[in-house]
Design brief:
The chain is globular, with a radius of gyration of 21 Å. The protein folds into 3 domains: 117 residues, Butyryl-Coa Dehydrogenase, subunit A, domain 1 (Orthogonal Bundle); 107 residues, Butyryl-CoA Dehydrogenase, subunit A, domain 2, CATH 2.40.110; 154 residues, Butyryl-CoA Dehydrogenase, subunit A, domain 3. Strand 4 and strand 5 form a beta hairpin. The protein starts with 6 loop residues before the first helix and ends in an 8-residue tail after the last helix. 45% of the residues are buried. The strands form 3 sheets. Strands 1-4-5-8 form a 4-stranded mixed β-sheet. A 4-stranded antiparallel β-sheet has the order 2-3-7-6, with no helix packed on it. A two-stranded antiparallel ribbon has the order 9-10. It is α+β, with helices and mostly antiparallel strands and 398 residues long. Bound molecules: flavin-adenine dinucleotide. The site of flavin-adenine dinucleotide (FAD) has 21 residues, from strand 1, strand 3 and helix 12.
Length: 398
């Protein structure tokens, strides 16, 4: 087994690391750079995006023919981790959620006409996107079969009626994907559609307040009360909605892990100078065995998360759906992120709890990791089902 990075991937990794250090991290230090959702203001983001494009570091996940870099998933894992070291990093390279997952989905399932209309402007950074799946009670959440939003066929168009919430980015997105029920068939009852924000028949009820910093456009609760979508804007076949979701979430869940690993590493980077300098009971904090155990355990957990993520990335590159591997990475890395940030806060004492470091931002953000793109318990349920069905083959290589 060879863990060496190819020279091309290593070159991207090194350049992204340098870019983040030189251009992005200084912006994190400027209080004026933060918007009301505690994310980077567009006036600070756009110059960084222009620079990233000029440096040939734009949209690593997209083919070169679309203006991206065409990296394999293993290359993405390496580079997203580097950009994830900065809380603003992934946005600068057009590799942040939810656009990242939406672009990967559209590239995989869109027709050429759909890609030209809906995907290319997201790749270009001209518009943002959002994905509407989750519904408030009693609609679909962890269990998509409970979905209530309907799409009814009327001639050559579909009419959408229903209620969704937690659509990340919907407050500023223009290219939108909605999942709706088109029949009562348990496996083939959902269908996915594209629509533009200016089409009538839907509205944002509110931007839901959350405990952590927000993606641009927040997390929105929306009503569909007669949105008309031409059949041309249907993604895949009627009844393929679950497939669309699985295709989107497969890679998108893993790119979350890649970015979170970068953030986990950064948390330890932030606390390291403190524990190397701070003296308590006549020795440096770093020389206390209790501190070493905390730090060593967090470092080891990050390494475990990286191996799970890389393995899933490698399987995706082999053309496998890697469902088990992605689920394992998602559960583990969500916990790793929390643990690394929590450890860094603890080791910095009161300063770690303050707004003087990024750790409190990261801590509030980290809490969503066990919920987004499937709650950890649901992933574990899927893993248990796989184990029960496969027996010892659950762990087979290759
Ligand atoms: C920050 C954030 C961003 C999001 N962005 C989007 C988005 O862009 N688009 C979108 O469509 N959705 C989005 N979501 C919604 C997210 O996908 C859902 O929250 C998630 O799928 C869980 O669904 P739910 O909230 O309805 O929880 P529920 O289904 O009500 O589940 C609640 C809890 O019950 C437990 N549970 C559920 N099922 C099982 C089971 N089978 N076994 C054991 N325990 C179980 C879990 O602990 C779970 O957390 C976002 C959520 C957050 C927090």
């Amino acid at each position: 087994m060879d863990f060496t990075l190819s020279p091309a991937i290593e070159d991207y990794r090194r350049r992204i690391h340098g870019f983040v250090d030189e251009y992005v991290m200084p912006v994190e230090l400027n209080p004026d750079a933060y918007d009301d959702g505690e994310n980077i203001k567009d006036e600070y983001l756009e110059p960084l995006r222009t620079k990233a494009r000029a440096a040939g570091l734009w949209a690593l996940q997209m083919p070169k023919s679309r203006g991206g870099q065409g990296l394999p998933v293993v290359g993405m894992a390496t580079c997203y981790e580097e950009m994830g070291r900065s809380i603003f990093g992934p946005l600068c390279f057009n590799c942040a959620a939810p656009d990242d997952g939406n672009m990967i989905l559209l590239e995989k399932v869109g027709t050429e006409a759909q890609k030209a209309r809906w995907l290319q402007p997201i790749v270009d950074g001209a518009v943002r996107s959002a994905f509407f799946m989750t519904e408030p009670m009693p609609g679909g959440g962890s269990d998509p079969s409970a979905m209530r939003t309907t799409a009814t066929r009327e001639g050559n168009k579909w009419v959408i009626r229903g209620h969704k919430w937690f659509a990340t980015g919907a407050g500023v997105a223009a290219h939108l994907i909605v999942l709706a029920k088109t029949s009562d068939n348990a496996r083939k009852g959902l269908t996915a559609f594209m629509f533009h924000k200016d089409q009538p028949g839907w509205r944002i009820l509110r931007r839901i307040p959350i405990m952590g910093p927000e993606e641009h456009g927040g997390h929105c609760e929306v009503i569909f009360d007669g949105l008309e979508i031409p059949d041309d804007d249907r993604l895949m076949e009627v009844g393929d909605g679950l497939k669309v979701t699985q295709i989107r979430l497969g890679t998108a869940r893993l790119t979350h892990c890649m970015r979170w690993l970068g953030m986990a590493k950064r948390a330890l980077e932030i606390c390291t100078p403190y524990i190397k300098e701070r003296v308590s009971f006549n020795v440096k904090l770093a020389d206390h065995e209790g501190v070493q155990w905390m730090l060593g355990e967090a470092a080891m957990d990050i390494a475990i998360g990286r191996l799970l993520t890389m393995h899933a990335a490698w399987k995706l590159d082999q053309g496998d759906f890697a469902r088990k591997e992605v689920s394992m990475a998602k559960v583990a890395v969500a916990d790793v992120l929390h643990k690394a940030v929590d450890t860094a806060i603890q080791l910095m004492g009161a300063k770690g709890y303050s707004g003087d470091t990024l750790l409190e931002w990261m801590y509030r953000y980290a809490r969503c990791a066990r919920l987004v793109d499937g709650a950890s318990e649901v992933h574990k349920m899927v893993l248990a089902r796989n184990l029960l069905a496969e027996g010892p083959d659950f762990w087979k290589w290759g």
